[in-house]
Design goal:
It is a single chain. By secondary structure, the chain is an alpha/beta fold. It has a domain of about 140 residues: NAD(P)-binding Rossmann-like Domain (Rossmann fold). The protein has 17 helices and eleven strands. The strands form two sheets. Strands 4-3-2-1-5-6-7 form a seven-stranded parallel β-sheet, sandwiched between helices. It has a four-stranded mixed β-sheet with strand order 9-8-10-11, covered by helices on one side. α6 packs parallel to α11 and α14 packs parallel to α16. It is globular. It starts with 8 loop residues before the first strand and ends with a helix. The structure holds nicotinamide-adenine-dinucleotide (NAD) and magnesium ion. Nicotinamide-adenine-dinucleotide (NAD) binds next to α1, β2, α6 and α10.
Length: about 400
């Protein structure tokens, strides 16, 4: 920089080619005066990653899939960008000294890299809810020990973060998470049994990656978010309510002891919560559609149906059980969603696989991240075996 000081915030994006990652790239590209990119990480989408890297000029571009190394190296030849591959390189990217890290890898695969950023005290935009579900208490302890900052990116948790008065936590009566109800909100169980992956990922309000879209259809997403909220806001399980709100305009609410309920509203567009985390503690512009309440006309609310959406009950029970139960819930759900997306099981079998895995595995206390990873692996093996045996479905 020819001796000129560069005061721009250094950014690393873990999962830059995904739905959250692409929205983050768009916001960063719009403000080259505020942000410079340290590292970009993806699983195997070489073309998109190389294209992003050519535009954003990070120090490092990484693919988790070692088989994609050669293609990425070729695509970035002559750019001076350091190219690496494999899970170790993903961690290395998270360890580079970027002040702000977007954690947007999907699933428990995001745990180790997110933790690597936590352990160097970074500010983290947390989209990857699965890492809090599978290792919540340990993660929060690491955040406190290393002086890291977690800024929720999940729209519900961003809403709560925005309306939670941090000096009035004693006055919070409860948190109310809103849920769209997903694409099968008004389908019968018989109809749901026949739903295809294409129908499950066609979310009515949000455009998202395949895994979270299926989670939204089963409402496991809201179960994972319940666990996420419990850890992020230190809120007991019985003080977190879930209400179905099909318009996805109110993103969540905090109810206080004086009867006040504070909500955050906006169009269902992830660029708003991403921009909030990116700009924090200031606000920055986001090109999300502006809310037009007269055009929307009505905001409606209903209770979730525990019969058609058993995932909610499973997640709540796993949180009550504690220890390794949420880790097992998350791992079994990842396996079951993958099996559903590849047409190995039906839609309603997802919750059955999760329930049977939870029943099959003895719950244990988790005292280290290694314990979490071991539980995650055995729950995955167990879930795959249940699917192979086709027990009960
Ligand atoms: P996605 O599938 O669109 O993208 C996932 C990203 O992670 C991709 O860049 C992929 O290359 C990368 N990735 C996958 N496995 C990897 C691995 N093993 N190592 C390194 N990179 C890997 O998913 P998404 O919809 O962007 O969601 C990402 C996370 O954000 C999820 O945890 C999801 O629950 C959460 N989230 C997403 C939304 C949304 O609107 N999409 C909203 C709230 C929370
Ligand atoms: Mg959400």
């Amino acid at each position: 920089m020819n001796g000129v000081q560069d005061n721009r915030r250094g950014i690393t994006i873990l999962g830059s080619t995904g739905s959250i990652g692409k929205n983050t790239v768009e916001l960063i590209e719009a403000r080259p005066d505020l942000y410079r990119v340290e590292a970009l990480v993806a699983n195997s989408s070489v073309d998109l990653l190389a294209n992003q890297a050519r535009r954003l000029k990070p120090r490092m571009a990484v693919v988790a899939d070692e088989g994609a190394y050669g293609a990425l190296k070729d695509a970035l030849a002559g750019t001076g960008i350091h190219v690496a591959a494999g899970p170790g390189a993903v961690i290395e990217a998270a360890q580079l000294p970027a002040e702000w890290v977007m954690a947007a890898i999907v699933g428990a695969a995001g745990l180790a890299p997110t933790l690597a950023a936590v352990r160097r005290g970074a500010v983290i935009g947390l989209a990857n809810k699965e890492c809090l579900v599978c290792a919540g208490a340990l993660m929060m302890a690491e955040v406190a020990a290393h002086g890291a900052t977690l800024l929720p990116v999940d729209s519900e948790h961003s809403a709560i973060f925005q309306v939670l008065e941090s000096d009035q936590l004693h006055a919070v009566e409860k948190i109310v998470l809103t849920a769209s109800g997903g694409p099968f909100r008004s389908r019968s169980l018989i109809e749901m049994a026949a739903m295809t992956p294409e129908q499950a990922v066609a979310h009515p309000n949000w455009s998202m990656g395949a895994k979270i879209s299926v989670d939204s259809a089963s409402m496991m997403n809201k179960g994972l978010e319940l666990i996420e909220a419990h850890h992020l806001f230190a809120m007991p399980e019985d003080r977190i309510d879930i209400v179905v709100h099909p318009q996805s305009v109110i993103h969540s609410m905090v109810a206080y002891m004086d009867g006040s309920v504070l909500a955050q509203l906006g169009s269902p567009d992830m660029r708003t919560p991403i921009a909030y985390a990116l700009g924090w503690p200031k606000r920055i512009y986001a090109p999300a559609p502006r809310l037009d309440l007269t055009a929307i006309g009505q905001l409606t609310f209903e209770a979730p149906d525990p019969v058609r959406f058993p995932a909610l009950r499973l997640a709540r029970r796993a949180l009550q059980t504690g220890g390794s139960a949420p880790t097992v819930l998350n791992a079994a759900n990842e396996v079951a969603v993958q099996a559903f997306l590849s047409r190995g099981i039906g839609f309603l079998d997802i919750a059955k696989v999760v329930e049977q895995t939870l029943e099959a595995i003895d719950h244990a206390a988790l005292s280290s991240i290694e314990d979490v990873l071991a539980q995650d692996r055995s729950a995955r093996d167990c879930a795959w075996n249940i699917i192979k045996r086709g027990r009960g479905f």
